[in-house]
Design a protein that fits this description.
The protein has a domain at about 5-85. The chain has five helices and four strands, in the order ααββααββα. The protein has helices at about 5-10, 25-35, 50-65, 65-80, 120-125, and strands spanning about 40-45, 45, 100-105, 110-120. β1 and β2 form a beta hairpin.
Length: about 130
């Protein structure tokens, strides 16, 4: 992606990514949630439908976690898999599909989003009825 494509993917939302993570205010929560993909999908081995969706998800996570924490996660991941930066690294395809439903609800002046029904259809096939 070019820098212009990244700016276009971020849209007009005021992303505030700093060294420390932060919570969204009530005013910014709904517009940012609406800009994010509605469900977690893996399409041709990549999360979400396209680069624009991935950019918005990364922006949201960076905003919440902060750059310092994100770099610590990257360093820890590099320690656990030193081959990760090798272009010859190929991982096996994942056969699991995860689905969820996000429900937004109000409680007083606060707004919450709850995640429900996280499951893998393959797991359902492995359940055998009791005798």
């Amino acid at each position: 992606m070019t820098d212009d494509e990244i700016r276009a993917a971020l849209g007009d939302l005021p992303w505030s990514i700093g060294r420390e993570g932060r919570k969204w205010t009530k005013a910014e929560m709904l517009p940012k949630l609406e800009a994010l993909p509605m469900k977690l999908e893996v399409i041709h081995g990549q999360l979400f439908w396209d680069d624009a969706e991935r950019v918005r998800v990364v922006a949201a996570l960076l905003e919440h976690l902060g750059l310092d924490f994100t770099l610590r996660v990257a360093a820890a991941a590099a320690e656990t898999n030193p081959q990760a930066n090798s272009s010859s690294t190929v991982s096996a395809p994942v056969e699991r599909t995860w689905n969820y439903r996000a429900i937004r609800f109000e409680h007083g002046e606060d707004s919450y989003t709850a995640i429900h029904e996280v499951h893998s259809p393959k797991d359902f096939c492995a359940i055998e009825p009791e005798a």
